[in-house]
Amino acid sequence: MAKISGWLNNFVSLRYLPRFLSLVYKTNKPLFIGNVLLRLIKSLLPIALLWIGKEIIDEVILQINNPIVDLSRLYILIEIEFGLAILSDVFNRLISLTDGLLGDLYSNASSIDLIQKTAKVELANLEDSEFYDKLERARRQTTSRVSLMSNVLSQAQDIITVTSLISALIYFYPILILLLIISIIPSFINELKFSKSSYSLQKSWTPERRELDYMRMIGASDVTAKEIKLFGLADFISDTFKNIADKYYQANRKLSIRRTIWAGLFHIIGDMAYYGAYIFIVLKAVIGAVTIGELSFLAGSFNQLRNQLQTIFSRFSLITESALYLQDYFDFIDMEFDDDLGFELWETPTDIKTGVTFKDVSFKYPQSNTYVLKNISFELIKGEKLALVGENGAGKTTLIKLLLRLYEPTSGSILLDGIDIRHYHKAEYQKLLGAIFQDFVKYYLTAKINIAVGNIVEVENDDKIQDSATRSLANEVIEGLPLGYNQELGKRFKKGAELSGGQWQKIALARAYMSDASIIILDEPTSALDARAEYEVFQRFIGLTKDRTSIIISHRFSTVRMADRILVLKHGTILEIGTHEELMENKQLYSELFELQAAGYKD
Ligand SMILES: Nc1ncnc2c1ncn2[C@@H]1O[C@H](COP(=O)(O)OP(=O)(O)OP(=O)(O)O)[C@@H](O)[C@H]1O
């Protein structure tokens, strides 16, 4: 019973095909319809060609035995066959052209869907390895499913061809069909069995394949090259890669060999059936039960049928296998991300009036039992510059992530102008905040775009981009580039210019000035700036964002002391909060760290 249901599972995956085809259809309707029509006509050409062949042979024999030779019908038949042969060739080319175009269009459309969907995914999901594997499988599908479309359509086309050939054979000798089908069924079941095993193998190896990709990436990338050389890591990486790759290869090899052997054996059964049937037709011709033309037609039809059925069956397993992968893609695309946290949704304000309040907020990361933030309560007043201070791992970035709603508090609440932020649509709420992180993305695109990503709708607003660059001191960097704002950054592309860490940070900081957000957050994006530059950057930042609320995380106290108030975190709790002077008087962690850093500079 389990075997039967396992076997039926092969067919279950086919339920994704209509949706897949309708997506392909939507990418370009006329092209898709054209492709289907071409295939429809093409599917009937084989039987037409065989029939004309039969007519030609019979006509030749008739003329041989005719005392007065009349070749006019023969010529017409040959012209028709010639025409059909040309048509068949032209159709083949047009079909593969339209297949290719539709495949490209589908691949583009599904990649876009994937990008859009990934943007909606919660950060917590992306950090979950099981989910990440699903995304990984879905990503692979966007480019490798192109052949699935032509396989499905070719399958439909071949089924029509086979039906036409079968009808012809049934007309002559139905027994032959029976023989043919019986001989081909073992081959079919075998293919199905192996396609399932192949998918299971690939699926169960997803984490290892991901690791292989990662090893390949760190082993052969410009980003890691420096450390790999200096620490002599090449052997370590290739050994790790080889270990996993060998195991995967062994598992895959075993399956491929078994698949080939069984397929070969079952193919021989098919051959035997064909030759059995061939002898049968030849004998019928010898006793005069069929004409020589009919012999050629029947043998040709039989041969084509056998080949085509083999193709259909092995293609069927290919399709079911691909459709199983398709399931991963659709599973991902169909994932629902529930924005509704049980809070009635209200209209999101366009600006803040009084400020933000953290009310007894505690948080632990999903799949973790440790509280990273514990009973955090404080107020961020509109227009205030608040600095977050604390040792590594104290929870500063996590607090920012909660404010940005990249995660939801485990308990407690965050209020904006007195209202729980969960009452606002998440994406709308996030527009109120602009954040630049320490691990900001270096886009290997132009300097202009690298700044414009802070507010991408302004990508064509050169004045605003240049103004933002001036504010963050990035203009000095950009002016030194050969192509200025149109210079590609990073070494990924031939003409790209690589920047120093601090130069990249100046560019990233300009993003903060692009944004019209009410609250600006700078989470250590200045750590690579030299002391003078950081000082200058923050002086400017504070001056230029006077009316805006901001949160700054920095380990440099010369910067921190510029803030209106400072919040000190220790092991996820608030240790102290106040102005620089107040905290210095408090003589706790802040004054200790401040003195420590100051002493370091003085000595
Ligand atoms: N995605 C995550 N999943 C699980 N734990 C996390 C995750 N991100 C951070 N943590 C943990 O949360 C704690 C606080 O991290 P956080 O990044 O907020 O510290 P931080 O104060 O910003 O540190 P730093 O000064 O080093 O940037 C750390 O113990 C860290 O291990």
TrEMBL record:
Chief localisation class: membrane
Domain ABC transmembrane type-1: 36-321
Coiled coil feature spans: none
Chain ranges of the ABC transporter domain: 356-596
SUPFAM superfamilies: ABC transporter transmembrane region, P-loop containing nucleoside triphosphate hydrolases
Keyword Transport in annotation: no
GO molecular function, one term: ATP binding
UniProt-annotated location(s): Cell membrane
Residue stretches spanning the membrane: 170-189, 261-281
InterPro entries: AAA+_ATPase (IPR003593), ABC1_TM_dom (IPR011527), ABC1_TM_sf (IPR036640), ABC_transporter-like_ATP-bd (IPR003439), ABC_transporter-like_CS (IPR017871), P-loop_NTPase (IPR027417), Type_1_exporter (IPR039421)
Pfam families in UniProt: ABC_tran
Statement: the UniProt record of this protein carries the keyword Transmembrane helix: yes
Alphabetized PROSITE patterns for the sequence: ABC_TM1F (PS50929), ABC_TRANSPORTER_1 (PS00211), ABC_TRANSPORTER_2 (PS50893)
Membrane topology label: Multi-pass membrane protein
Alphabetical keyword list: ATP-binding, Membrane, Nucleotide-binding, Transmembrane, Transmembrane helix
Name the record gives this protein: ABC transporter ATP-binding protein/permease
Species whose genome carries this gene: Gillisia lutea
